[in-house]
Amino acid sequence: MKYLVSNLIIIVAIIGIVNLKCVDKSTIRFKTYKINLDEPAVQRFSEPSYDFKNEIVALVEAQKKLLKIPDQVITLIEFIAAEIDNLFPYPFNEEMKGISKSTGIKLGDVVFANLIYDITAYCTGIIAKQSTGQIIHGRNLDYNFPEYLKNLTYVAQYYRNGSLVFTSAQIAGFIGVLTGHKHSKFTFSINERDQGDWWINLLFAVIDRKASPLSFVTRKVMENATSFEEAVDILSTHDLIAPCYFIVGGVHPDEGAVITRNQFKLVDIWKLNPESIGIEHWYLLETNYDHWLPAPPNDDRRTPGMKAMNATTQERINLNTLMQVMTIDPVCNKDTVYSVVMSAAEESLHGGFQLIVR
């Protein structure tokens, strides 16, 4: 009872600072699928792709219509699809072929959908250290097509050799990872870094053979990295097709980092720091702009988020109150597809990974 009252006080305090608009009023019920990494790659996403076939087709058509893709870019996408085995390594090439086969969607459209998500999504991520030292991680995925993506969201549990490797909030038709949880190791999310036209970033998929789509890099990190430090190292050094922010939380006190990247190199690592007098003493908050620069007035989710975190306090932050922070306007907004709160210190199957479709 004391715990519930404490959380209620925090929620009231947050509402007093920022209107609570984006509440959990969705009737959408997401599914959970097991992705077996021991299966042939072409088969791994067959079940969710088939189940969400109509929704995937609707999204692809909306993207084509609303993004007003230049003819030159369409030609480039068709080239990428024709050269998929040369441009994308296994298993990603075969997995995209499998999605195309399961849905009947042209391979070029599947490739485009997988490249466009991680270079156009704009999001909010928070890493926080509780007073106990446990690290928790909040994440909102915002995107231009929320009405479509909400109907495509599911939980993916990736298995290898019969054991759970990691859990992700997944979009049907998409094989990369934008939000992930690896128990006793680390949590991860990715935010767009608002620099450059998306179609110019797309060219890096062809021009720089060492560069990889962001969410393909993060998928391999989620599969293979075994510690917070290893994940941060890979995400800091791998060539990418677009600038971004990687947000990583660990299992030990002060294992929290926002990694600012361009295509070729590390720009900055912002870490939790118990010696600091700034917010990084106990939390980090990243939207889509470099943290050392002011947020633009027309898209300032940072200031309301910080006000809500400061009102919550380190002593009272937990997965429930962090979800309340992720729910305030404009941290959560009309383009928010889903919110996730998670902690690598807790098993995803037992409360360590919580998803709300907005």
UniProtKB/TrEMBL annotation:
An annotated GO cellular component: lysosome
UniProt keyword list: Glycoprotein, Hydrolase, Lipid metabolism, Signal
Residue ranges constituting the Acid ceramidase N-terminal domain according to the UniProt record: 31-86
Residue runs in coiled coils: none
One Pfam family of this chain: CBAH
Enzyme Commission code: 3.5.1.60
One GO term of the biological process aspect: fatty acid metabolic process
Keyword Isomerase (UniProt): no
Cytoplasm found in the keyword field: no
Molecular-function GO terms, alphabetical: fatty acid amide hydrolase activity; N-(long-chain-acyl)ethanolamine deacylase activity
Catalytic site positions: C123 (nucleophile)
Domain called Choloylglycine hydrolase/NAAA C-terminal: residue spans: 123-292
Pathway linked to the protein: Lipid metabolism; fatty acid metabolism
Matching InterPro entries: Acid_ceramidase-like, Acid_ceramidase_N, C45_proenzyme-like, CBAH/NAAA_C
Enzyme class: hydrolase
NCBIfam families found in the cross-reference section: C45_proenzyme (NF040521)
Self-association and partners: Heterodimer of an alpha and a beta subunit, produced by autocatalytic cleavage.
Similarity comment text for this entry: Belongs to the acid ceramidase family.
Protein name: N-acylethanolamine-hydrolyzing acid amidase
Naturally occurring in which organism (per UniProt): Brachionus plicatilis (Marine rotifer)
